[in-house]
Amino acid sequence: MEVIPKGQSKQDWLTYICKACGLLYKEEEGDPDSGIAPGTRFEDIPDDWSCPLCGVSKEDFELYDASDAVKISGGACIKSALVVNKAKGWTALKNSDVVIIGAGKAGWQAAQALRGANKDISISIVTACAGDLYEKPMISVAVAKQIDAKSLIKETGVEAAARLGVNFYANTHAIGLSPQTNQLRTTRGTFKFGNLIIAQGSKPICMPNVSLKDCWHVNHVESYTKLRAALQDTNSKIAIIGAGLIGCELANDLAMAGHDIELIDLSSLPLGRLLPDLASKKLLQAWGGLPIKFHGGVKVDDIASENTMKKINLSSGDILQVDHIVMAIGLKTEPDLVKNAKLDWNNGLAVNPKTLQSSAPNIYGLGDCISIDGEASRYIEPILRQADVIAKQICGQKDFYYENRALPIRVKTSSLPIRIEGKIHDAGNWDNEKGAKDPATGKIIFNQWHNNQVQASIQLG
Amino acid sequence: MNLVIDPPKESTISISLNDRARVLNGVREISQTDLAAIVEACDQEGFYPEAVLKKLGQAGAFSAHLDVDGEIDYGLAIQCMSEVSRVCGSTGFMVWCQDACGLYIESSGNSLLMNDLLASHGSGQTLGGTGLSNPMKALTGIETMYLKAEKVDGGYLVNGTLPWVSNLGQKHYFGTICNVVDSTTKEPMPGHELMFMLHCDAPGVELKECPSFSGMEGTGTYAISVKNLLIAEDKIIAKSVGVLLKKIKSAFILLQTGMGLGVTQGAIDSMWKVEKQLGHVNQYLEDRPDELQQELDDLTENIMELSKTPYDDSKEYFIRVLDARLHTSELALRSAQSALMHQGARGYLMCSEVQRRVRESHFVAIVTPAIKHLRWELASQKAELSPA
Hints:
The complex is a heterodimer of chains A (461) and B (388). Chain A is built from nine helices and 29 strands. Chain A has helices at residues 66-79, 83-88, 105-117, 157-164, 221-231, 245-256, 277-286, 336-340, 381-394; strands at residues 15-18, 24-26, 61-64, 93-101, 123-126, 133-134, 153-155, 167-169, 174-178, 183-186, 189-198, 203-204, 237-241, 260-264, 292-295, 300-306, 309-314, 319-322, 324-327, 331-332, 349-350, 363-365, 370-372, 375-376, 409-411, 418-422, 436-437, 444-450, 453-460.
C-alpha cells in the first residue's frame, strides 16, 4: 500500500542514487525486499539499511536529479570537441588507409597533398591540440601589427577536416605505436593503419629546475593565445629566456607594443650562436629605442612566484621581478612514441633523406619531428615539399624524391630584419667580422668562407 | 591451396634460471590439471578454489615479485598470473589480488605487519585481497571515499561500507584506504588518509554476499561493512598514503597485465582447437590466431621489458605501463570476441570456455583501471602545462 505523507503529492517523490553501484532508490517504490514499504521517504529509512545491490550504507546515497544527468551529457558533447567523432561513429578498432599524427602545418599539409593525389584514400588525423589552421610565422609579429590572437586562425580543424574529407580526432593523444601490427593506440581508441605519417612537431625545452606551469611558450597558437589573453592590453614586464630566433623575434614584437622586455641568454649577445658579434651588436643598437634590456652571458639560477609576480635570480646576482616569463631556449622532439616503437631515432625520427620513410617502410615523417642525417629542421618551407613527396610515395609514385637543401632564414626582428643564406657551420668563425656594405642596396653583409667558397651569408637591414 | 593455418609447436619456456622455470612449470601444471577440473564449477556455481590457490602459492606463484629471497621478479609474477588466467580468468584475478596485497605488506615497511603476514602470504598459506578501487577513484576525484577513520587512543576507529572486494573469506584480509576525519567536525581532512590491513574476522567487520556477476563468480567477492573497527599500529600499511601509492602505482598496474595476457592466450588456444574442422571458413574472419599470437608475443615482450624496473618513478615509464595495460585490455576483448566467432555455435553453449572467456575479457577491460580510466589518465599525463 502506498503511503503518501501529509501535505505531499506524488510529484514530490524523490529518487536517491547509490554512489557505488548506481542503484536508484525511488521513494515511491521503496525497497519491499528489505522491508521498506513503497512511499517511504529516504530520510525515514533505518540507518542500518544497505544498498540491496552492492551493500554500501545509506549514507553512500545521494539525491538523484534525472534532469541533471541529461544536462551533463549534453553539455559534455558540445564542450569536448567530440562532435565530429560522434558523427563518424565510434567503433573499437578504426581502420584508415593513412593515419596522420599531428595537425600543425605538417599534418595538414600532408593531408592536403594526399587528398590531392588520391580522392578516395581514407585519411584520419589524430592530434593532441584543437588542430586549427594558422600561419605560425605570424606569431612573431602579431602584437605590433595589432592582430588579435584569435584572428590568426584561418580555418578551424573541424572545417579543414570537412573540406579535405578526413576523419578528425582533436584533443587526442597518440600513446603507443606497434609497427608490426600497424596499430596506433590513442586516448580515443586504437587505429589500424595502412600507412602512418608522423607529424607531431616539437615541444619547447624547459630548464630542468623550472615548470612549464610558471612559464609561457609560443610554440603553437593555443599557448600563444593564452599568453596574449594574460597580457591583455596592459603594459607588462616580461622576461624572455633565450635570445635565439624565437626569443629575439618575440622580444622585438612585444617591445614594439610597449611591453618592458628582459631578454636573457647564456651567450653574451643576442643570436650569439648564429651571428658574428658585430651583427649581434647592430641588432642591439637597432633595439636602442625599444624597452628591451638584454642580460647576456648569464644563467637563470631559479624562478620563484610571489603573488602574481615572478622573481628570477640570475647567475650575475641580478634579481628580476616580472609579470610573465616566456621560455624560448629551444625546441626538442618528444622521443617516447618513436623510441618505444623501436623505430630509428637520431635527434628526431630518423627518415630516409629521399623518401622520408622511417625504419618501418609504411611509416613516414615530416616537419619538426624528423631528422635527416641527424639534423632536425624547424622551418616551414621544407614541409610543403616533404608533404608532396610523402603523398606521392604513398600513392605509388616511388621515384619522386625529397631534396634536402639549405634555406634562407628571415629573422623577423623588424627593428633590424636579418636574412641568412647558406649553411652556417661554425658560428664563431666569421672571416669578415666587420661586414661589408653592399654597394647596390647599402645593406651590411657578412660572409662565411669554407674551401674558398662562401658557405653562408648574412644580410642586415 | 591450404587454407588452414598450422598451430605453433607447444611453446617451451625460455628461462635460463632453473628456479624460474620450476616455478612457472609448476604453476602451469596446477593450472592445467587441478584448476581446469574445477573451472566450470567456479564460473557456474561460484565455487571458491581455495585449495588450488594454496597450491599455487606453494608453487611460488605469489612471491616472485616480493623480496622474500633477495630477488624480485615481476616478469615471473606476471607470467604465473597469465598461466592461471589462460585456464580461468577468475582465479587469475585472485592471483593478482593476492599479489597486490603482498605488494602492500612489503611496501609498508611496518615490521609488525611484515612479521605477521609476509611469509605466510607469499607462500599462499594465508590469503588476501585489495580494496583500492574506490580509494583510487576517490583520490583522483572520480568518487568519494567510503571508509572513514577517526583518530583515537591506540589507533584509529574505522567505519563505512566498501562494495565488492575480492579473494575474501572469513580468515582473509585486504589492504585498503580510508579518509581520516577531523575529530570535532567529523569531516574528512583533505590529504589525510590511512592505508591499513583489514582482517575479515576482526570485531565490527561483516562480509555481505554480493549479487551475481556476469563473470568472475567464485572469486570470494563481498561487500564489507565496518563498524567501529579499531586499527592499531600493527595493521597500518601507510600514514603517508600519497607517498606509498606513488611508489607502487606502476608496479600495481603492471602486475594486472598478467590477467589480460592469459585470457588472450586462452582465447587463441580455443581458436586453434577448431582450426582443423573450421579453418576453411574461419579464414574469412579478422583477427586470426596466428596474427593475434604475434601481437600477444610482442606485447608480452614489451611487458617483460617493463617488468625489469617496476619501481621506475618517471612519467615516461608510467605512460608506458598505462599503455601496456590498455593494450592488454583491448587485445583480450578482441581475442575473446574472435574466439567466439571462430568456434561458432559450439562456442555459444553456456558451458563453453569461449563463452566464459568473453565475460572474463569484459572484466579485464572494466576492472579498475578500466579502459576509460586508462585513457583519461593518459590524457591528463600528456596534457601540456601552462600558467593559465
